[in-house]
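=== Structure Prediction Worksheet ===
Name of assembly: unnamed complex
Input type: mixed (protein and possibly other molecules)
Chain count: four
Listed entries:
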Amino acid sequence: MAIIEVTVVPLGTGDTSLSRYVADCHRVIEKYNVKWELTPMGTVFEGELPMILKIIREMHEVPFDNGARRVSTTIRIDDRRDQVATIEQKMKSVKDKLKQED
Amino acid sequence: MAIIEVTVVPLGTGDTSLSRYVADCHRVIEKYNVKWELTPMGTVFEGELPMILKIIREMHEVPFDNGARRVSTTIRIDDRRDQVATIEQKMKSVKDKLKQED
Amino acid sequence: MAIIEVTVVPLGTGDTSLSRYVADCHRVIEKYNVKWELTPMGTVFEGELPMILKIIREMHEVPFDNGARRVSTTIRIDDRRDQVATIEQKMKSVKDKLKQED
Amino acid sequence: MAIIEVTVVPLGTGDTSLSRYVADCHRVIEKYNVKWELTPMGTVFEGELPMILKIIREMHEVPFDNGARRVSTTIRIDDRRDQVATIEQKMKSVKDKLKQED
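=== Predicted Assembly ===
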């Protein structure tokens, strides 16, 4: 299982507001049975790679479906195979370190 | 004011766990008077550009201070000047859109 | 057709040199009939989305096949549908602008 | 010395073409005494960190100076301190590996 961050941005739309596109991207991800969360800079979710790529593919189409003619999509995949890597475990691991050394 | 996401990763450390470095990066940002939050893929904070670049500079040094010899830092800046852009307002804007159209 | 940049990095390998992994990623892309080039920060290629995602999937596995247990992959997709967007045309467009205004 | 990749993109401009902004970003970097090159997905250059951050700061302002009201800037820093890391050496290293194992 990998953790992924996706940011899908339309270019040349004439409107500086992007929240409508972000909301539509979330509607895509909600259809899938994956753990996800909204961050101030994108959408983070976890899953197996074939599922992840399928979701990315669909999110990337959202602005085009809404009239955009150019889309910039940024993706970061954090894939760890020496232990189960979930969003929850990753966040817990950092918070534990912060507590330990305080 | 801009919103920024930073991910600082040491390369070639021989240890797949990075939470120690992430925790130390948060100790850097806590010293500054900026609004920030931990995400599963990095650290997000808001501020004026000179302050942002100063914090990035300091976070980027964290793994070197801990013995790393190569560091990969990824930064995304979302800078909006037609209205006040804060993490809180950006998150609210998407959530409002999600509610509206449900 | 879209233009894509991929950077595949193993984490926790104990060796700061990554050129071996980059070379193996290029062996993956050379098997496909796509236009690609090596940049100092990753691999850029152009193609249709299904092909692009297939290549990403395969490149992402390279470090795992070489013993890595954690891999960080960064992807940026620039997808333009109002005109044919190729690497060559995109580079030419910038160079023309640089000449024009000199 | 570090190697850096920067991509500066205006949002909400109403025009899908970005080459004008990219050309202006190159005019910024040409003023500095750094080794740089244009890639299909951004600008790559090498330098010491304080200089790098100064150049980023100036490139990030380019679209605002041209009327944009929102700018998205993506930066990746590859900083290696166990040996001199230059664009030239990094490219050579991968090409050597590709030759060796052919």
